[in-house]
Amino acid sequence: MISNKMVNAINEQINRELYSEYLYISMQAWFADQNLDGMANWMDAQGKEERFHAMKFFNYLVERGGRVKLKAIAEPTHEFDNPLKAFQMALEHEKFISKSINELMDLAIKDNDHATRSFLQWYIDEQVEEEASVDKIVNMLKMVGDNVHGIMMIDRDLAQRVYIPVNEAQN
């Protein structure tokens, strides 16, 4: 049986994951407005991935007999100054999400909730990948600075990202 405290914490995490989607599509809109379609594409894929994460928590809570209670999603930032600042914000956000998932794992350990511990391990591993991929982009953007040609090369590379929905059975 899943504790009420864990149900509440997972509901909070669902909200954080949906906010993540909202933040990334706000970034997508900003990049599109800047004619950086590759970066907009990257943010689109990231937003879709965040929705998948939210729904994975949603479905887990339903499977465990917990009640999903959706809350209002906060309004995301709309202005990002430049690509580097946007990706730095994305990296800080991913670190926040990692901390939040680690806190869920701490609660699962405290509750002796082995099922939730097993479930959360996927997210812990995923967050390592999430932070690393954004950190790599931040470092590339730092290297090129304000060099328009460098920014355009990175934009072109980020246009290659494709969101491929993960088969739940694989997880």
Q: Can you tag this structure with a few keywords?
A:
5 helices, 171 residues, Ferritin, 0% strand, mainly alpha
Produce the secondary structure layout.
Elements: H1 4-33, H2 37-63, H3 83-110, H4 114-144, H5 148-158
Textual characterization of the structure:
There is one protein chain. The chain has 171 residues and is mainly alpha-helical. The chain has one domain (4-71, 80-165): Ferritin, core subunit, four-helix bundle (Ferritin, Up-down Bundle), CATH 1.20.1260.10. It contains 5 helices and no strands. The chain has helices at 4-33, 37-63, 83-110, 114-144, 148-158. α1 runs antiparallel to α3, α2 crosses α5 (148-158) and α3 runs antiparallel to α4 (114-144). The radius of gyration is 17 Å and the shape is elongated. The chain starts with a helix and ends in a 13-residue tail after the last helix. The model has no long low-confidence stretch (mean pLDDT 95).
Q: What is the number of strand segments? A: 0
Helix content: over 70%
Radius of gyration: 17 Å
β-strand amount: under 5%
Order of helix and strand elements from N to C terminus? HHHHH
What average pLDDT do the residues reach?
95
The CATH topology name reads Ferritin
Q: At CATH's second level, what is the architecture?
A: Up-down Bundle
Provide the number of structural domains: 1
Task: Please report the distance between the alpha carbons of the first and last residues.
Answer: 21 Å
Number of helices: 5
Q: Shape, please?
A: elongated
Structural class: mainly alpha
Quaternary structure classification: single chain
**What is the top-level CATH class?**
Mainly Alpha
Unreliable spans are none
